[in-house]
Amino acid sequence: MADELGLPLEYQKLPEYFDAHNTNDNTEVINRIIEKILREHKVEIVLDLTCGTGSQVFHLKKRGYKVIGADFSPALLDIARKKALKEKIDVRFIDGDMRTLKVGHFDAVITIFNAVGHLTKPDFEIAMKNIHVNLKDGGIYVFDIFNLEAMTDSVVNDFAMDVRSTVDDAQIHAVQTSSLDRETGRLTSYDHLTIQKGSEPPKEYKSNFSLQVYTAKELREMLARNGFETVYQYGFDGEKFVEDKTLSILTVARKQ
Predict the structure, then answer these.
(1) Which domain range does residue 42 map to?
(2) N or C, which end of the chain is more exposed by having fewer CB within 10 Å?
(3) Rg of the chain's alpha carbons, rounded to an integer?
């Protein structure tokens, strides 16, 4: 999906460690905020086009929503399906790309946790057109992405990560640094993972990938070009959006 921008190691080679690095306290916060937005718009049927291992799908399903999850990563979907089986949750997961997958007509489509940042700008517009097709008239599209105007040098430096964690019998040491090209709006992260399983020699993995980030105005203009009206823009925590302060933009747009 993102050949030009690259992808994190957890997508490329190490899907079994995806949840360890992508599920945290913020996950439940954003899940509750998404649910609040969907409830306010009387949403019943949801398509998560970038569901990963299913965090939003399971949260919404357990609260009575009809949900389908889709992702371009078969490995992540395999984990999601195993979770559903283990928890005895009847939910459908589909292999597919947000730019092309057509599943039906939904009250809402969601793509959460900077998922759209893995697309180039032209590809995001293609995805918007496809999301438009998957929505009922008046349906809403909910997504988040980093806010370019708030990304000072200090903020980018704060993205640096040096984390140790344990998954089953594996000890993981993850180091990440980032840089931002303000002209292109691309945030590039450099990953170095060391993984030691039991008494085996440690293995090292290195990669880099970029996220396309946007200003709030840029997103509104793109949405308008592709058949959407921007309803409102929040911070990722659901608080009031401040143009040059709020780090992530949570956007709600309506199909026109």
Answers:
(1) 9-148+214-255
(2) C
(3) 18
Each residue's pLDDT expressed in tens, for the chain with a length of 256 residues = 555 899 998 887 889 988 876 766 688 889 999 999 999 999 999 999 999 999 999 999 999 999 999 999 999 999 999 999 999 999 999 999 999 999 999 999 999 999 999 999 999 999 999 999 999 999 999 999 999 999 999 999 999 999 998 988 999 999 999 999 999 999 999 999 999 999 999 999 999 999 999 999 999 999 999 999 999 999 988 899 999 999 999 999 999 9
Paired tokens of 132: 């438009």
Q: Does some domain include residue 188?
A: yes
Coil, helix or strand for 216?
Answer: helix
Report which residue type is found at 192: H
207 DSSP β-pair partners? 191
pTM to 2 decimal places: 0.95
**One domain for residues 234 and 120:** yes
CATH number for the domain harbouring residue 206: 2.20.25
Residue 2 lies in a domain: no
Cα–Cα distance list, 62 to 32, 45, 65, 72 (Å): 12, 13, 7, 24
**CA–CA distance from 223 to each of 59, 212, 244, 255 (Å)?**
27, 16, 20, 9
The helix or strand, by DSSP H or E, that contains position 55, with its residue range, turns out to be helix 55-61
70 and 140 belong to one structural domain = yes
CA pair distance 161, 236, nearest whole angstrom: 20
